[in-house]
Write a structure and sequence with these properties.
Rossmann fold; alpha/beta; nine-stranded mixed β-sheet
Length: 250
């Protein structure tokens, strides 16, 4: 057995949950789809769910205890005022409390150069937090684009993306064509500061983004954690986060 000091410990990875609001006297509850935590664990990390907080001290306390962050997706949109636009037809449901929490958490994590992965809506928020903007509804704003909300099993891919050579994403899953699932009606319209598009769909929709300054800040528009059975190489996205998190292990 290796000495304790040489055991490869699992870096703690924070996961943002969804919130299901309850009516009347019922209590709201946090919800996290299990594949997120399973992907982090399979990639070598220790998943930790971060309950919503508004106090900056609480957010700093969370970040003191984790080495990487996953901002998860959900069936809601980023408020358009966050990127300087007004509401237009096609905008979906909003969850202001969750968005405020994830925004503050992302901003603080990025200030610390903490490794960050944004998944689906988490990628969109990462882009907005860094000054980018979104198409509020792909079908209305990009009428020539394909439908990006697949009807079949989300554990199976839906369309290809082109992963650009020389990117962090290419190091994680390989360059060139990659099949992905597709569950979003919004997309990046203007890249945030310091971000580059690392994967693009055939219709031109940006499917992945990443920081160009050496910090691990990666966003993917699809759900790699749902594809691990049909496409094991998708675990590379989470492995990349966990590997970088080991550099700042807590």
């Amino acid at each position: 057995m290796k000495p304790h000091g040489h055991v490869l410990r699992r870096p703690s990875i924070g996961l943002t949950p969804d919130v299901e609001e309850a009516g009347g006297e019922a209590t709201s509850r946090y919800v996290l789809k299990s594949p997120y935590a399973e992907a982090v664990f399979r990639a070598g990390g220790l998943p930790m769910v971060l309950p919503l907080a508004t106090d900056p001290g609480m957010i700093d306390a969370f970040l003191d205890r984790i080495s990487g962050l996953v901002v998860t997706g959900g069936a809601f949109d980023v408020p358009p005022e966050a990127y300087g636009e007004s509401v237009r037809d096609g905008l979906g449901a909003l969850k202001p409390a969750r968005t405020r929490f994830e925004t503050a958490l992302l901003q603080a994590a990025l200030r610390r150069n903490l490794p960050v992965l944004g998944v689906c809506g988490g990628m969109q928020l990462l882009n907005v937090v860094l000054g980018g903007a979104l198409f509020q509804d792909i079908q209305r704003d990009l009428p020539e684009a394909r439908n990006h909300e697949q009807a079949h099993d989300r554990g199976q891919p839906s369309h290809p993306v082109e992963v650009k050579d020389g990117t962090v994403l290419a190091e994680l899953v390989g360059r060139g064509q990659l099949m992905v699932n597709s569950t979003h009606h919004q997309a990046v319209s203007r890249l945030g500061e310091g971000l580059v598009a690392s994967a693009v769909a055939p219709d031109g929709v940006i499917e992945a983004i990443e920081s160009s300054n050496g910090v691990f800040a990666v966003g993917v528009q699809w759900h790699p954690e749902l594809l691990l059975q049909s496409m094991p190489l998708q675990l590379g996205v989470y492995r990349g986060l966990v590997t970088r998190a080991r550099d700042t292990r807590r």
